[in-house]
C-alpha cells in the first residue's frame, strides 16, 4: 500500500528543498484549480524502497503579512485533508516560533498522523532548537538537513511501518 505525505510548515523552513530531494525530477503534476489548490505541488517520492505521493505547500512565500495567516491555515488544512501523514517542518536553527505554534495547533486538531521534523539541523547551531521542538507536544523531532540529505534514514524508519 502506498500513502500521501504532506510537507507543511511556515515559509522558509526548507519544505521545498525536502520535496525536491524526495521527488528528484519526477514532478508529477501541478493542480491548476483556482484558489488554494494551485499552491499545492504534488510529486512522486522515492525514499529507499518506499514510493509515495508527496505534497509541498508552496505559494506562501508571496503572501503579504495580512494574508499570510489565513492562507497558511487554508493551505495547510487542504494538504492535511489530502494526506495520510503530515510532515510538520520547523527550522531547528530558528527554534520554535509563534507561527510554528499556530501550525502545531492546526495539526493537533486536524491530522491523525504527524511527524515533526526539525530541519537545517546540520551542525551544532541546531541543538537548542531540537530541544525546543519537544515543547510543540508532537513527540520526538526527526533531525533533518534537507539541503545536505541528512536524517533521511530516520525519516525512512518512521515512514516504512506506515506504508
Ligand atoms: P520553504 O519556504 O519551506 O519551501 O523553504 P525552501 O525549501 O525554499 O528553503 C528556504 C531556505 O532554506 C533556502 O535558502 C534553502 O536553501 C534553505 N535550506 C533548506 N534546507 C536546509 C538545510 O537543511 N540546512 C540549511 N542550512 N538551509 C536549508
Ligand atoms: Mg517552498
Automatic annotation (TrEMBL):
Role, per record: GTPase that plays an essential role in the late steps of ribosome biogenesis.
Residues of the full protein shown: 1 to 163 of 483
EngA-type G domain mapped to chain residues: 3-163
Chain coiled-coil ranges: none
Name of the protein this chain belongs to: GTPase Der
Family the UniProt entry places it in: Belongs to the TRAFAC class TrmE-Era-EngA-EngB-Septin-like GTPase superfamily. EngA (Der) GTPase family.
UniProt-annotated binding residues for GTP 1: 9-16, 56-60, 119-122
Subunit composition and interactions: Associates with the 50S ribosomal subunit.
Amino acid at each position: 500500500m502506498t500513502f500521501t505525505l504532506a510537507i507543511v510548515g511556515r515559509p522558509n523552513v526548507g519544505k521545498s528543498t525536502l520535496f525536491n530531494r524526495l521527488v528528484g525530477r519526477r514532478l508529477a503534476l501541478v493542480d491548476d484549480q483556482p484558489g488554494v489548490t494551485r499552491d499545492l505541488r504534488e510529486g512522486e517520492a522515492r525514499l529507499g524502497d518506499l514510493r509515495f505521493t508527496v505534497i509541498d505547500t508552496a505559494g506562501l512565500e508571496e503572501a503579504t503579512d495580512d494574508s499570510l495567516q489565513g492562507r497558511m491555515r487554508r493551505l495547510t488544512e487542504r494538504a492535511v485533508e489530502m494526506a495520510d501523514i503530515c510532515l510538520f517542518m520547523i527550522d531547528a536553527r530558528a527554534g520554535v516560533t509563534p507561527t510554528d505554534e499556530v501550525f502545531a495547533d492546526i495539526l493537533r486538531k486536524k491530522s491523525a498522523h504527524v511527524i515533526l521534523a526539525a530541519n537545517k539541523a546540520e551542525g551544532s547551531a541546531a541543538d537548542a532548537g531540537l530541544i525546543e521542538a519537544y515543547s510543540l507536544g508532537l513527540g520526538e523531532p526527526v533531525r533533518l538537513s534537507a539541503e545536505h540529505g541528512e536524517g533521511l534514514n530516520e525519516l525512512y524508519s518512521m515512514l516504512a511501518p506506515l506504508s
